[in-house]
């Protein structure tokens, strides 16, 4: 009996081991319902699945250890098996991998191979391959992408074999059949390769012309440091673009979803983090500004300008004034092409124009490229799209879908042909490149070379510092003496360090008259530097327990962030106990002083309020998604939104912002910071924060801006509603949302926009964080007229509900009564 038990156990064990190791189908081994193949180290699994509530069955590949099934490839996407009859996947004659149903009808099969002796194997990168006995790949699923691009998969075209690798969306979440959208290389011309997202034949967005440089960012900010590399292969017979990830333990995928979005996903701890979504904004739309136009003010419809307003003018000025960009721009002085008299103007940091009508050469210097272009009267511009190589691209038609990128983006240069008359006017973007000028100014060249040498020298120094810093990463940086100016200078601060005496002089010794206000971390003073520049100086409270941390956090975070909707940090000063932050001065101070003030609020008409909301949304999107650091602000509120001279909103106060690593994207914190009235339930009650807690605060802010009322401290009679949210929810359900509008802007408002904004606000404050949109969804909602989902009921939190109400143990350091800021609540 004992012997039998041992045998049974051994068999079970062997069976288990065998099942765990099964990554191959051979002529002896096939796959049927309930069976799966698992790749060697258990990352991917192949088997049969039913998407969502669909009854259709498919053969697909998904991540083995991710509980929410994430399918990365589907074999029979257009030919599902309907009903429950058994399926079999096996190798048949001519090395074909075939999926059949119970009556041996073929549901799906791979191509014929030249070998009889084949096996099918699921590899650890998610590639299902049919191989011969020498491991030569005869067929692979990577050649037939569905909606997902994994590291190692390529996009492109093989012109000889007339083969294309492109992503195509599913029809819907429940239906993997071929959907409407594709993302792949331009396939109707042989111009320099670029990718386009298309709906049928119409282009929705265009990626930049391919470059080995396009995905070389590291994702250190998610707590995992790895290098992404793009591998672009451009040959006579084929072109392809692929990305690789150095650290194979990182799970990353790019998907094209069924609602025209290309999304990048990274697995972080327990969930997929959306790293990037496009399109996000109006400016992402293909060729929105037409020839020689550039989309500069994102989101707004008034977003097109001519590439260079000194040299180009709108083709149809009247239409342009009405925001009709269809005519694009034309040259102020037409080209004549006389005896090579024309030259080129260089525009730096651009997304190069559509390469549809281009010629290119893969090994030509930029000088040679310029000469080529000059010789041909139809050549409009030239550029090298890839800084890792010497590629020459020539454009032979008007430049379409060009974009001037934000500063620091590091995009390539383009040289645009100009009539000689136009060479005199300075470019905003960069000075004209003139042959004669170049020759004449040898001294200048020597000077530039000298500085180039200096620059290279300093880059090496910076690199050495960086390398040293990486090496020392495990060691806390601000250990021991909290701050030393040299620390900051060497490692984290590119900004100027100000001396204490400069700042004391600028603020008249921190005089009361210069005091602008006081936030959770101490007073803020207005100052004027000797050269007449106005500044705002935040003087960190010496008595605050947490100040230095926040100071460090703020300095490091903000110095790395640049966006027009974030307040700019000019520098800092450390002097003994004193720690000062120096910002650009915002003459209109903070938003709360407008929206909650009867007189001031009259200055905010409806358009201004809407623009402010859009600006805040863009700033938050940048923090959450676009910046290299990913930041959750954690204290988004009206008093943290500053207004510049033109009432453009700028998010301030990153002392509370927290750049988060991989395990902190949805983290539980013992340390609750934020402001009542703006805190999401999961954050206020359980200390759980994520980008969705900022979305919640944003939603409250939207409702405050529309209504002109504070959420906190709001009471209605006779309904006795204890906060604005409850009031908004009642009005919404009664269909009387318009009653919410602040009477001071009622006249200028556009009712459908008001209703839409309130709905967006309510979507952002839904109780369940997963139900809330992310900021890129919010921006889409604000910028379009599409139907919005119905918001679910929010939670009506009152302060007594909050577990963290523990004022006595908190180190509350400031804020008005109406705005109780919790700067630290320690669970002791
Ligand atoms: P904070 O500590 O950032 O919350 O700032 C407190 C107050 O100081 C704000 O509500 C503003 O009124 C004012 N303030 C802060 N920064 C600036 C700035 N850069 N320009 C003008 N006023 C500012």
UniProtKB/TrEMBL annotation:
<comment type="similarity">
    <text>Belongs to the protein kinase superfamily. Ser/Thr protein kinase family.</text>
</comment>
<dbReference type="InterPro" id="IPR003609">
    <property type="entry name" value="Pan_app"/>
</dbReference>
<keyword id="KW-0547">Nucleotide-binding</keyword>
<keyword id="KW-0067">ATP-binding</keyword>
<protein>
    <recommendedName>
        <fullName>Receptor-like serine/threonine-protein kinase</fullName>
        <ecNumber>2.7.11.1</ecNumber>
    </recommendedName>
</protein>
<dbReference type="Pfam" id="PF01453">
    <property type="entry name" value="B_lectin"/>
</dbReference>
<keyword id="KW-1003">Cell membrane</keyword>
<keyword id="KW-0732">Signal</keyword>
<keyword id="KW-1015">Disulfide bond</keyword>
<dbReference type="GO" id="GO:0005886">
    <property type="term" value="C:plasma membrane"/>
</dbReference>
<dbReference type="Pfam" id="PF00954">
    <property type="entry name" value="S_locus_glycop"/>
</dbReference>
<dbReference type="InterPro" id="IPR024171">
    <property type="entry name" value="SRK-like_kinase"/>
</dbReference>
<keyword id="KW-0723">Serine/threonine-protein kinase</keyword>
<keyword id="KW-0812">Transmembrane</keyword>
<dbReference type="InterPro" id="IPR001245">
    <property type="entry name" value="Ser-Thr/Tyr_kinase_cat_dom"/>
</dbReference>
<dbReference type="Pfam" id="PF08276">
    <property type="entry name" value="PAN_2"/>
</dbReference>
<dbReference type="GO" id="GO:0048544">
    <property type="term" value="P:recognition of pollen"/>
</dbReference>
<feature type="domain" description="Bulb-type lectin">
    <location>
        <begin position="22"/>
        <end position="143"/>
    </location>
</feature>
<dbReference type="Pfam" id="PF07714">
    <property type="entry name" value="PK_Tyr_Ser-Thr"/>
</dbReference>
<dbReference type="GO" id="GO:0005524">
    <property type="term" value="F:ATP binding"/>
</dbReference>
<dbReference type="InterPro" id="IPR000719">
    <property type="entry name" value="Prot_kinase_dom"/>
</dbReference>
<keyword id="KW-0808">Transferase</keyword>
<keyword id="KW-0325">Glycoprotein</keyword>
<dbReference type="InterPro" id="IPR008271">
    <property type="entry name" value="Ser/Thr_kinase_AS"/>
</dbReference>
<feature type="transmembrane region" description="Helical">
    <location>
        <begin position="444"/>
        <end position="467"/>
    </location>
</feature>
<keyword id="KW-1133">Transmembrane helix</keyword>
<dbReference type="GO" id="GO:0004674">
    <property type="term" value="F:protein serine/threonine kinase activity"/>
</dbReference>
<dbReference type="InterPro" id="IPR011009">
    <property type="entry name" value="Kinase-like_dom_sf"/>
</dbReference>
<dbReference type="InterPro" id="IPR000858">
    <property type="entry name" value="S_locus_glycoprot_dom"/>
</dbReference>
<feature type="signal peptide">
    <location>
        <begin position="1"/>
        <end position="19"/>
    </location>
</feature>
<dbReference type="InterPro" id="IPR036426">
    <property type="entry name" value="Bulb-type_lectin_dom_sf"/>
</dbReference>
<feature type="domain" description="Protein kinase">
    <location>
        <begin position="510"/>
        <end position="796"/>
    </location>
</feature>
<keyword id="KW-0418">Kinase</keyword>
<feature type="domain" description="Apple">
    <location>
        <begin position="337"/>
        <end position="419"/>
    </location>
</feature>
<keyword id="KW-0472">Membrane</keyword>
<dbReference type="InterPro" id="IPR001480">
    <property type="entry name" value="Bulb-type_lectin_dom"/>
</dbReference>
